[in-house]
Amino acid sequence: VDHCIYELREPVTDIEAVIQRFLKQNPDVDGFFTMNDKWAKLLLRSLKNLERRVPEDVQVIGFDGVTSSKEDELTFSTIIQPVAEMAEKAVEVLINLIKEQPVEKKNVLPVTFLMEIALIKKTLDSPVCKRYHLIIQKRFLESLSFFSSTGNVSS
């Protein structure tokens, strides 16, 4: 698998110009993993201007899962960082440092992968998934009826 890591020095003054230049210089790239969701959004706009379809022609995955407001929806796949847990851990480490107690040198917290809905649909429509679709659907409905019977889900 050929790959390219494109690194830039901060601050980047014109992100969209950088993205446009990269896309024009590398028209065969079929996937991007951006350093944050802001870059992913700008990349999506640039890809649209170049008439490249996501996810049909190119895959885009952001990183952070941060939206500008509660009403703002993510329209691409992203890795969601556990921001609240990261903040709690940072405070815990600081308190332990102040108290001169030992702290872990490395803290790893779980992240969540959020797949964009069009990619989910494309995946579910694939021949491999169609074979298992009924099994998945049946198990999903069984789990809903389980939760409903235990009172954990209201109908």
Brief summary of the model shown:
The chain has 155 residues and is of the alpha/beta class.
Describe this structure in words.
There is one protein chain. With 155 residues, the protein is of the alpha/beta class. It contains 5 helices and 4 strands. Strands 1-2-3-4 form a 4-stranded mixed beta sheet, with helices on one face. Strand 1, helix 2 and strand 2 (59-64) form a beta-alpha-beta unit.
List the helices and strands and how they pair.
Layout: H1 15-25, E1 31-33, H2 37-49, E2 59-64, E3 77-80, H3 83-98, E4 112-114, H4 117-124, H5 127-150
Parallel strand pairs: 1-2, 2-3
Antiparallel strand pairs: 3-4
Helix pairs in contact: 1-2
Q: Can you give keywords for this protein?
A:
155 residues, alpha/beta, 46% helix, elongated, disordered C terminus
Helix and strand string, N-terminal first?
A: HEHEEHEHH
Averaging pLDDT over every residue, what do you get?
Answer: 76
Helix count from the secondary structure assignment:
5
Biggest sheet, spatial arrangement of strands: 1-2-3-4
Query: Which percent range describes the beta-strand content?
Result: 5-15%
Helix amount: 40-55%
Based on helices, strands and strand pairing, what is the structural class? alpha/beta
Largest sheet features: 4 strands, mixed
The counted number of beta strands is 4
Q: Any low-confidence stretches, pLDDT <50, length ≥5?
A: 146-155
Distance between the termini: 48 Å
Inertia-based shape = elongated
Radius of gyration: 21 Å
